């Protein structure tokens, strides 16, 4: 079944005269990730919590799968949806396994069955079985968040509500958790509503992004590509940030980008090499190790970021701009040196792709060769609302 899973119809929430959410009308599509993003205090969490009636609306209607939530018992409704919050919210005196089994147990599932399912879920969220008997305080922040996600999945709910679930972990773990969520979404096809104040996270994860403004006003709903390309107003354009043009490059793959096969120097021969111009230094396996400069022979100069062939123009431009030679290093799937690209070629290619995309849009088609953000190749163009294509490989 397709279409909307959750519908907000003119929903408002007023706290003692102050409007937290202002006449919100919004469709949350089934089986996709919808992100609520915006600055602090603009009503994202309140809107999320009204879906499972942790907060009651002051006016308006919310339906889930066609049913008005106000007609359902709040406790039943809450158990029928997964909920993940910032600090994982695990029960400290229960083991990991018992935390994960909580909702199935409340739903009357026998302990043995609930625990067996909990063990399976450890695998689903990428945690080793050895953690099953630990208590939450014996886990890292990232592990706790994974347990939180496993717990939310335990009753196999069609809807997952996630309130800033990854904001308390460091950037590396956060990146891992984000990629895991995209993988889970591909495998399980849940309807996910995800709250964040981080526009980069919203663009990475969201098929649809709802931007909230101060006063609980919905400023724009769009796919990530459209949001970066065409913010609806000054508030949205300020919120998505100054470098949105650069980030928008993350929606074009590198098809057609000119890569030259500039000469390379083998690391073991660097000491005696006398390159006439900047040359990429490669190790015995053909992987880039840095650069050799004509001005300082024998010295290995550290390189910039690498561009993986097939990734987006954003990573190609970053590779060129971060390189000491001004040329970005391109590598294949195995990390082996392929060639180099210059910033001006990337920009020229971006211009061509943008023009093509504009032409397609004016014909009512999809963006040709569009890519998922941040280096993930995409099998197809975006949906008509600019929604994210499902990545086929993780960046
Ligand atoms: N229980 C409450 N009583 C009174 N006011 C509340 C209550 N809960 C939220 N608010 C107010 O409603 C507004 C929206 O809050 P909400 O938590 O939904 O915002 P948010 O966008 O999720 O913010 P943050 O990103 O900081 O979590 C804020 O001004 C907040 O102070």
From TrEMBL:
Residues 364-382 have a biased composition (Low complexity). Keywords: ATP-binding, Nucleotide-binding, Transport. The keyword Transport applies. InterPro entries: AAA+_ATPase, ABC_transporter-like_ATP-bd, ABC_transporter-like_CS, P-loop_NTPase. One of its GO terms (molecular function) is ATP binding. Residues 350-363, 386-395 have a biased composition (Basic and acidic residues). Residues 6-240 form the ABC transporter domain. Residues 349-395 are annotated as: Disordered. It comes from the Bacteria. The keyword Transport applies. It holds the Pfam family ABC_tran. Belongs to the ABC transporter superfamily. PANTHER family: OSMOPROTECTANT IMPORT ATP-BINDING PROTEIN OSMV. This is ABC transporter ATP-binding protein. It comes from Sinomonas terricola.
